[in-house]
Amino acid sequence: MIIVALDPPQNVDVEKWIKIRYDELKEYVQGFKIGVPAIIRVGLEGLSKIFKDYSGLLIADLKLADIGDVMALTASIVGDYGFNAVIAHAFVGYSQAVDELSKTCEKKGLKLILVVSMSHRGSEEFIDKHLESFVEIAKRVGSWGLVAPATRPLIIKRVRELIGSEVKILSPGIGVQGAEPGTAICYGADYEIVGRAITHSENVKQNALKIIESQKQRVAKCRG
Ligand code: XMP
């Protein structure tokens, strides 16, 4: 289960770069995650045209971290342009923040995904110290999914223990950041988010298929 992170590099025709990757990959992966670089360069109008017929997961990765009203307004806007999921930080807290966002997501039929730990080392400085409280917020608002890092798979295991089996865990860090395909799923994630290892390769489809195969093999092994 793969979600492709589309983060176009500079000096490319961004719309074309995204469209080519979307066309080549859509039938093999479960979703696409669009981050700030693509959203600010293409704009929501342009993105909604590219993805207009897509029925998989289309995640707006703005990593929202604001007061509730503003996060809710932002989520509502991206929902109007065809996104069906949004990523927000849990560290802004429940009251007047994630609670309000979650209500809007529910109203708009958007899947809410909360970051409870990150793949870079700095996550240990502040975020990871509050992992359990962040998972608690996710439970309280009935978040659809959580983000936890493939680079530190024991965190995924812990998050899975805390959250139970219903909530999805999405895990970045495969490929360029160092984790092998399948690692996160073996530790309890549902989806592995893969960006550059697929999107910056010469043959995008071939690379994606290789990663999907390697994920399958590792998962088959760890599940016995
Ligand atoms: P690469 O190219 O490293 O891209 O495969 C990874 C993608 O995932 C995002 N990312 C994260 N998002 N929590 C998140 O919510 C994280 O810990 C995290 N680490 C990486 C990154 O923005 C890119 O799109």
Provide a short characterization of the protein structure.
The chain is an alpha/beta fold and 224 residues long.
Summarize the helices and strands and which ones pair or pack.
Blueprint: E1 2-6, H1 14-25, E2 31-35, H2 36-50, E3 57-64, H3 68-80, E4 85-89, H4 94-108, E5 111-115, H5 131-141, E6 145-147, H6 153-163, E7 168-172, H7 183-186, E8 191-194, H8 196-199, H9 204-222
Parallel strand pairs: 1-2, 1-8, 2-3, 3-4, 4-5, 5-6, 6-7, 7-8
The structure holds xanthosine-5'-monophosphate.
> Could you state the order of secondary-structure elements as H and E?
EHEHEHEHEHEHEHEHH
Let me know the average pLDDT: 97
- Helix share, percent: 40-55%
- Which sheet architecture does the biggest sheet show? 8 strands, parallel, barrel
Shape designation: globular
Any overview of this molecule?
With about 220 residues, this protein is of the alpha/beta class. The protein has 9 helices and 8 strands. Strands 1-2-3-4-5-6-7-8 form an 8-stranded parallel beta barrel, surrounded by 6 helices. Helix 6 links the parallel strand 6 and strand 7. Helix 1 (about 15-25) crosses helix 2 and helix 3 packs parallel to helix 4 (about 95-110). The protein starts with a strand and ends with a helix. The model has no long low-confidence stretch (mean pLDDT about 95). The chain binds xanthosine-5'-monophosphate (XMP). Xanthosine-5'-monophosphate binds next to strand 2, strand 8 and helix 8.
